[in-house]
Amino acid sequence: MILMEKDLFSLIEERLPGLSKGHKLIANFILSKYDKAAFMTAQKLGAETGVSESTVVRFAAELGYDGYPALQRALQDLMRNKLTAVQRIEVTLDRMNRDEVLERVLALDIDKIRRTLEVTSREDFNRAVDRIVASNTIYILGARSSAPLASFLNYYFTLIFPRVKLIRNTTTSEMFEQIMHMDERDVIIGISFPRYSRQTVKALQYAHNKGADVIAITDSSASPLAQYADELLLAKSDMASFVDSLVAPLSLINALIAAVSIIDRDKVSKSFERLEQIWEEYDVYEKNTESTQLSDAGAEERI
């Protein structure tokens, strides 16, 4: 079987001269209208190109895929980094209507978490956790739509570890100023999904050259982040309209936070005990008056 991370378009163009007439029709349609083909069933793609559904299935096998769904997923993964925002909106209109948006989007998110469990290596995950716990300073970077993921991870890691730095999304020169002191004792966690951030790729390259541990959270081993990663954590992402669905990446990050807290449970517990005292002393959180009243009532009954 071929390596699926190979550029699908290059593969099709390479095989195109030797394909049958029916397979050439499918190939040319995919090359010219990949944004539409990526979400068509085998039956619909066959109808669109004037061939049978079985011909579409055989076309996938001809390229080395286990079946049409595998080819379709490869096409979806590849094309997501090529679509403009306008094309994304057009794809969404083709995929769902207003009445089914809620059910459709949530169902797709559930599927992405399931697929993330299938592609994420437990060994890679555990090694990433060990690297994080053993590091001197933890750097976290997520640009553009991945920035909220980086902020979320930074918030909880700051409560657990003494030295955590969130790399701010500024100019490239300012980004390097924030990571210039990085060395082999440190770890950087880079987060990016299609369309991949060039800034994040540059930061991971710099960290790799400095000897720091590099953990990449991305969608595929074909991601440009992967070439610099010591540990690659894969999470399936897709688009819900022109925006990215980052439910599965966030779930993976939740798992990271839980895993590092379990390793040094006593230390983490003491840290949160101190935090609870601080929060209580400075009224950080609004008190639940109903719970307070119930607690007071219970105390009166015991008296």
Could you please describe the fold and organization of this structure?
By secondary structure, the protein is of the alpha/beta class. The chain folds into 3 domains: 1-79, Winged helix-like DNA-binding domain superfamily/Winged helix DNA-binding domain (Arc Repressor Mutant, subunit A), CATH 1.10.10; 113-265, Rossmann fold; 266-296, no CATH class. It has 15 helices and 7 strands. It has helices at residues 8-15, 21-32, 34-37, 42-49, 53-62, 68-79, 85-95, 101-119, 122-134, 147-160, 172-179, 198-209, 247-263, 265-281, 289-302, and strands at residues 138-142, 164-166, 187-191, 213-218, 231-234, 238-240, 243-245. The chain has a 5-stranded parallel beta sheet, sandwiched between helices. It has a two-stranded antiparallel sheet with strand order 6-7. Strand 6 and strand 7 (243-245) form a beta hairpin. The longest helix is centred in the middle third of the chain and has 19 residues, at 101-119. The relative contact order is 0.10.
Reconstruct the topology from this structure.
Layout: H1 8-15, H2 21-32, H3 34-37, H4 42-49, H5 53-62, H6 68-79, H7 85-95, H8 101-119, H9 122-134, E1 138-142, H10 147-160, E2 164-166, H11 172-179, E3 187-191, H12 198-209, E4 213-218, E5 231-234, E6 238-240, E7 243-245, H13 247-263, H14 265-281, H15 289-302
Parallel strand pairs: 1-2, 1-3, 3-4, 4-5
Antiparallel strand pairs: 6-7
